[in-house]
């Protein structure tokens, strides 16, 4: 089986390397020799450790009759979308690691593919075979929830803050020095990378055709050492989680920093590692852990899709032939989320402030679960108040935050995180 690699960067080089060094093993497992015959690059002068033809002529490669599978590793959304669409129209198989492409165009591409093999295991959680798990291993289950650490950059930063007491900016700088974060880290720390991955998983589990703009996405930028003190004192840790949860009211889809009890398995996942918890109605909770990024881990997932294609295992792209069987499910509006909340307020330390805050909470249907005051975080007459709530409605919490922000005794932007027990 002859393949073309469209975008021979870190992952593309690793795909070629693994196909070469494990050629005999892969052939035994797939029943075919899988051989890269051409790679498309933007700059031919850049040195690459591959032993096949490289070219900048993308159109010429698309016209080749001797290519059986195209591996799309270019990145971006619009250009890869038009490229993959053209390949699928020609009834040629595609494997991609492009989560952004699938976050926006997975249903259109599934319709165009119409049975033509389309692999995308590498688009979510790197070397963790979570897509195959949902489509195949857990296919008998009605998925109750998917919760996961899906971005290694954020997990590294939050681990540094929790374990080493690092400030956010220092932890981010260290992540950039180590190559875990980009020069512009917005896509990672803003939660958008994790949101793209969550949408792909939710499509497989629930048939939900949502885009990033349709769901709640919050990043980790405003977490500070005061929050770290509180969560440690109350036996929580902080993780950026992607959450898809089936309720009687619909499907919750959200990405945000989350307080997780330290006894939970997800709380124990540190550094750049990823982990995803899936709860099925039959199997209960299952947990998947591993490297979420990196050239070799991502290449491993790409090649697993190539092996499936070589074996002619052409299951439906998103895991079902009849999407209408899932069409009764809807995405819950962000305001309808029900969960526990953590709230941090910087206020004047004077008589009546706490009573005013608790009264305002009560007026907005918010019940306090725990409370902590630490005056040593601020100078002068300021103090920091921490609250956790019983189960509350997102709309009520957001209304409270807007109202309390306008109170004269509140001296900084209120901060909130959600809690997953």
From TrEMBL:
* Origin: domain of life: Bacteria
Q: In which pathway does it act?
A: Amino-acid biosynthesis; L-threonine biosynthesis; L-threonine from L-aspartate: step 3/5; Amino-acid biosynthesis; L-methionine biosynthesis via de novo pathway; L-homoserine from L-aspartate: step 3/3
List the keywords (alphabetical).
Answer: Amino-acid biosynthesis, Methionine biosynthesis, NADP, Oxidoreductase, Threonine biosynthesis
The membrane-spanning stretches of this chain are none
Q: Which residues form the signal peptide?
A: none
Q: EC number(s) of the enzyme?
A: 1.1.1.3
Reaction(s) this enzyme catalyzes, per UniProt: L-homoserine + NADP(+) = L-aspartate 4-semialdehyde + NADPH + H(+)
Kindly report, in one word, the top-level EC class recorded for this enzyme: oxidoreductase
Which is an annotated GO molecular function term of this record? homoserine dehydrogenase activity
Domain (ACT): residue spans on this chain: 342-415
The record's similarity note reads:
Belongs to the homoserine dehydrogenase family.
- PANTHER family from the UniProt entry: HOMOSERINE DEHYDROGENASE
Q: What is this protein's name?
A: Homoserine dehydrogenase
Chain's gene name? hom
């Amino acid at each position: 089986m002859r393949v073309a690699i469209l975008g021979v960067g870190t992952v593309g080089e690793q795909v070629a390397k693994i196909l070469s060094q494990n050629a005999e093993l892969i052939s035994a497992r797939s029943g075919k020799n899988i051989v890269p015959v051409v790679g498309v690059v933007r700059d031919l002068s850049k040195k690459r450790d591959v032993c096949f033809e490289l070219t900048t002529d993308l159109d010429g490669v698309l016209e080749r009759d001797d290519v059986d599978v195209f591996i799309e590793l270019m990145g971006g959304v619009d250009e890869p979308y038009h490229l993959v669409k053209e390949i699928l129209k020609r009834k040629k198989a595609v494997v991609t690691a492009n989560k952004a492409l699938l976050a926006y165009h997975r249903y259109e591409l599934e319709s165009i593919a119409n049975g033509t093999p389309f692999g995308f295991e590498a688009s979510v959680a790197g070397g963790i075979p979570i897509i195959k798990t949902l489509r195949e291993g857990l296919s008998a289950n009605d998925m109750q929830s998917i919760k996961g650490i899906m971005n290694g950059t954020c997990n590294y930063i939050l681990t540094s803050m929790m374990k080493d007491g690092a400030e956010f900016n220092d932890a981010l700088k260290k992540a950039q020095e180590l190559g875990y974060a980009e020069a512009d880290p917005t896509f990672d720390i803003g939660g958008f990378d994790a949101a793209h991955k969550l949408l792909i998983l939710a499509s497989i589990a629930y048939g939900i055709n949502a885009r990033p703009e349709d769901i709640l996405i919050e990043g980790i930028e405003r977490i500070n050492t005061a929050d770290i003190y509180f969560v440690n004192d109350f036996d929580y840790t902080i993780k950026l989680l992607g959450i898809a949860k089936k309720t009687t009211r619909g499907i919750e889809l959200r990405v945000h920093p989350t307080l997780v009890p330290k006894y939970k398995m997800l709380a124990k996942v540190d550094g750049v590692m990823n982990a995803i918890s899936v709860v099925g109605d039959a199997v209960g909770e299952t947990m998947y852990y591993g490297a979420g990024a990196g050239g070799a881990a991502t290449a491993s997932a790409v090649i697993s899709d190539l092996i499936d294609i070589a074996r002619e295992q052409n299951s439906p792209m998103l895991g079902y032939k009849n999407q209408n069987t899932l069409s009764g499910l809807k995405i819950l509006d962000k305001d309808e989320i029900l969960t526990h909340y953590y709230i941090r307020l910087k206020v004047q330390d004077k008589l009546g402030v706490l009573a005013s805050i608790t009264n305002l909470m009560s007026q907005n249907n918010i019940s306090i679960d725990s409370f902590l005051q630490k005056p040593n975080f601020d100078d002068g007459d300021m103090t920091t108040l921490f609250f956790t709530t019983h189960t509350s409605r997102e709309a009520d919490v957001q209304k409270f935050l807007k109202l309390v922000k306008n109170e004269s005794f509140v001296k900084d932007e209120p901060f909130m995180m959600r809690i997953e027990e």
